[in-house]
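Researcher: Next entry in the queue.
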Amino acid sequence: MTVENIEIGGSVSDVRGVAPGVVINGDGTTTVTLAYPVRLTADGDEIKSITMGRIKGRDMVEMLNASGAGDRVKIMLTASAGYTGPKAEALMNALDAEDFLKLTGSVERFLGNGPKTGPSF
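Model: Structure for this entry, 121 residues:
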């Protein structure tokens, strides 16, 4: 059995700064088509795309309290994708590096431009 997310929204070519295989949905989420689909278990369904949503404050606190940069990115990705516990671990273990980077780029759009330095006028 194959699991696919329904993509809503415009064509990727219509949106500047969006990687190929990423669709911005009407509700603000992004759907990322994986270049290398994954299975979370040996007999599990193949995951061809992952829908990423906004990150909540609780997840940001967990991310900021994580010990290393890799752990922070892992928390950010799995929280945005709605994966927790063993399912999150299985996703991270199965993801190809290309898809990992595409998912990271997708999540970054929810974080804005980051803090500015210097006085604010």
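Model: The longest strand covers residues 30-39.
Researcher: Noted, moving on.
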